[in-house]
Design a protein that fits this description.
It is a single chain. The protein is of the alpha/beta class. The strands form 2 sheets. The protein has a 6-stranded mixed β-sheet with strand order 6-7-8-9-11-10. It has a 5-stranded parallel β-sheet with strand order 2-1-3-4-5. The two termini are 29 Å apart. It contains 13 helices and 11 strands. The model has no long low-confidence stretch (mean pLDDT 95).
Length: 321
Amino acid sequence: MRRTRMNEIIAEIRRHDEFVVIAHVHPDGDALGSAVAMYLMLKNMGKKAFVCIEGNFPKKMEIVTQYCGDFIEPSESVFPCAIALDCGDTTRLGAASPLFYAAETRIVIDHHHTNTGYGDFNLVRSYSATGLILFELMGRMGYDIDAKTANCLYVAISTDTGNFSYEATDEATLACAAKLRKAGADIPLICEVMYKNRSYPETKLTGVAIDRIELFGNGRIALTYVLQSDYDALGAVKEDCDDLINYAREIDGVEVAVFLRQIDGGKFKLSLRSRSCVDVSRIAAGFHGGGHIRAAGGTMEGTLKDCSACIVKAVMEEINK
């Protein structure tokens, strides 16, 4: 992979006048917050910008999506420059992949250490969040971060650090948060929307997932799951699953939490979280996925019973190394 200096990215942004900004499928806070922050910067620079992301957005993400009036559907359009944010590999581009590869210039900005370097310019740094890379980029460009951009970047960074509680939360992350607050980030509102509010169906789904938690490996592994039938039964949506794995991870003595979300009859979305000593990105790599050392994901095919047994075995093997 060709690693790119930040000055090269800045030169490309200044050179082009029209952009499409892409983030990973079924975006989380870092993906959406970073995408809209980049969009706002480009628009404020007088450039044309559009955002294309596959998947539905959680309702709580309206706190950042409200600032973007140029979301577009995947198409065969050709843009002078495409910027992929928070996408570790090409599969994460989803239906927006043709837009990325049709562009004259392809830029990747990401913080996943497993990034495959699929762009013409690859700004990959193992920061706590992609939003933190953008904050640094904007500073280097002399861009004056306004309150809207500050809100987007704060959502990006806070969500990917577990509201500044994960191991990756370093001095630079906290210093950035302070500067975003000074720039106008509405932290009380963000915390209320992102961390202290949930719908009734999501609350019911949380109870179901907690009730299904099973422990393996002498209590070092916790696994739970959600089936498609649960959505209809409870009036929930798949976005309501985003935080369920944390209830398994937070059990005393658990080192690795596993969450399986049924996509269709025989396919599951796999999520993994570790507490302190297991690199779950190594496990996810064996299941068509990747991610971070403490948070990763992939996909599995088979029955719930078979998938559960398979992933528990893989986690145990990694724990025992």
